[in-house]
Write a structure and sequence with these properties.
Helix content of chain A is about 60%, strand content about 15%. Chain A is of the alpha+beta class. By secondary structure, chain B is mainly alpha-helical. The chains are: A alpha+beta, B mainly alpha.
Chain lengths: ~110, ~325
């Protein structure tokens, strides 16, 4: 199974989870995803996902002016985004339980 | 949005290629997307120091992945028209806000904000006063009389407290300004004009009221003709100390000026005009008498105003008689 294919479906949830922890700008979100272990994730996928989540209202965005360096567009999670994230948690839990029992592999189910 | 950063040329080139790949995407969404990408790519390039294409893949692949993840292959027609304009506006606003000069202005504005908080409180109260057509206090020219001047002052004080509280709360919430708050602030700023006009009006009225009560203090244009205590004098009745009305008395002031009545009373055709030998009319000869209409006869030459002459006790300056 291609890890990147699996990831694409779950990327929404991953991005929402990262932003829910703390507001972040594009490259920052990408870094945090990679740091969490999602090394397969493509830059374009993250940026595209951010924009799509913003358009759908799951994320809000604002520009932070800064003295040094560029002014960054930050994303924050909205109520709708949190609801989406909660749903994703449930779906993922069910899915990974089902799949790991089929594969007879122990998989860490996120709380 | 990228502020003052100089985007490295290879990032620019990469982006241009990606932009071309997305030429079919509605301009607003494409611009939003690429603005985000540009900022992030600039940072990525700084960090890694490696050529972009090596880390990101070809612009073509990047664009394809971007399109996919952003859901752009959905037909453009589904983009809600109002939000397109909204996005555009947000994008432009973001770019303007990102400019360093603008950022500096915003910091300055932020520091001066408390002054605005006080001003907007006053304007809010002033606007209410204009709306209910409450007068303005005579004592404190800029305070509206909401019931009384004291209540107007109290209202302003309360409004200032509320305004400052709102201002500091907004500060704590962060730099995002909700549209409603922005609109309300702009509306109050615009209210400055009607409030200022209303206050100015009242001041003129107050000055008028003040002058009506103390006409002597009004420095008006010097009135032509004989004037006493601000009012023109139409006639003078000189009496001698023994109670006789004197006739054809010429009056002068200490500087030798004839105390002439305003000469427009010449228009009164029944007036008994007094003239010199040369025919020049005199306007400082009193009392002025009037003929009976249609005649050249003064009916009662010694008629005078209803007065009670005081009896003069002081010894005369010289013996009686002229």
């Amino acid at each position: 199974m291609d890890g990147s294919q699996l990831l694409r479906g779950a990327l929404d949830a991953a991005v929402l989870a990262v932003v829910a922890q703390e507001d972040g700008y594009g490259y920052d979100v990408l870094r945090r995803l990679r740091a969490a272990g999602l090394t397969e994730v493509g830059d374009a996928s993250v940026y595209g996902t951010l924009r799509r989540l913003y358009r759908s209202g799951a994320l809000t965005s604002y520009v932070m002016p800064s003295d040094e360096g560029p002014h960054r567009r930050y994303y924050g999670i909205t109520g709708r985004g949190r609801a989406q994230l909660d749903e994703a948690r449930t779906v993922w839990a069910d899915f990974s339980r089902a799949l790991s029992s089929l594969l007879q592999t122990e998989v860490e189910v996120p709380a | 949005m990228t502020g003052a950063t100089i985007v490295p040329p290879d990032v620019e080139a990469y982006l241009a290629a990606v932009r071309e790949e997305l030429a079919d995407v509605p301009a607003a969404e494409r611009d939003d997307l690429l603005a985000e990408v540009e900022a992030s790519l600039a940072e990525a390039a700084e960090e890694s120091g490696r050529p972009l294409a090596a880390t990101l893949g070809s612009p073509h692949d990047f664009a394809a992945e971007l399109r996919n993840a952003a859901g752009l292959h959905a037909t453009p027609a589904t983009a809600r028209a109002p939000s397109e304009l909204g996005r555009r506006v947000r994008l432009v606003a973001g770019r303007i806000a990102g400019h360093p000069r603008v950022a500096a202005l915003r910091r300055l504005a932020s520091e001066l904000a408390p002054i605005w908080w006080v001003a907007r409180a006053y304007l809010a109260v002033g606007l209410v006063a204009v709306a209910v057509d409450a007068g303005w206090s005579a004592r404190y020219a800029v305070v509206p009389r909401l019931g009384s001047a004291e209540f107007g002052l109290a209202a302003i004080a309360a409004a200032v407290v509320v305004s400052v509280w709102l201002g500091t709360r907004a500060r704590r919430r962060g730099s995002r300004v909700p549209r409603v708050a922005l609109g309300a602030n702009l509306a109050l700023a615009a209210a400055a004009i009607p409030v200022a006009l209303a206050v100015a009006d009242t001041r003129a009225y107050d000055a008028l009221v003040a002058s009506a009560y103390s006409p002597a203090r009004v420095v008006a244009q010097p009135q032509p003709g004989l004037v006493y205590e601000g009012r023109p004098v139409a006639n003078v009745y000189p009496y001698s100390r023994d109670g006789r009305l004197l006739h054809d008395v010429l009056l002068y002031d200490g500087a030798g000026r004839p105390l002439e009545i305003e000469s427009s009373s010449e228009l009164d055709t029944n007036r008994r005009g007094v003239r010199t030998t040369g025919g020049r009319p005199l306007y400082h000869v009193f009392p002025i008498r009037y003929f009976e209409p249609g005649t050249r006869r003064v009916a009662r030459p010694s008629a005078g105003p209803p007065i009670e002459l005081p009896v003069v006790r002081t010894p005369p300056l010289r013996p009686r008689g002229k």
